[in-house]
Amino acid sequence: MSRVALFLRAINLGPHNKLNMKELKTCLEKAGLGEATTYLQSGNIVLDTYEDVSKIAVLANEAIKQDFGKDIIVFTRTLLQLSKIINSNPLRIHESDPSRLFVVFVNSHLDAKLLDFLTDNLSTGEKLEYLNDVIYFYTPYGAGQSKLAPKLSGPKIGGSARNWNTLTKVAQMLVPK
Fold it and tell me: What are the structural domains, with CATH classification, of the chain?
């Protein structure tokens, strides 16, 4: 059995892509993906599964489409992968402000032109680093006040952001009991 974290992109933010976490848990379990535990209302799930971890994102997406009629991008990470993200944090100095430090999961490698676009949109005090196919982003104003934050999850990037608090809590949930 493997344990894997699922991070669903852009659910329960505003009026679109509303998913009840209890119903989502049932959906994933009914699809045979394993035992699901949700965290918060923003699409964070820990799955104990016998399925091939490399196939979980596609299988979860298909189950959500079938049950809810929504095409939701699903990012998956194992404990080893999340530990690497946490331990490699190039913005470690901002871990003391965890609600304003974000990790953005992306599905594909970002090219230099796109990274230039992102850094050109940083406001004063904001910082952005790209490492291991993850964007680390700090905004001293909070995501709601940042001009760049919505672009990180927009169609150009297609990422899914989690603040440091959420990321580390989900990583803790992946540790075997």
Answer: 2-80 (3.30.70.1280), 87-164 (3.30.70)
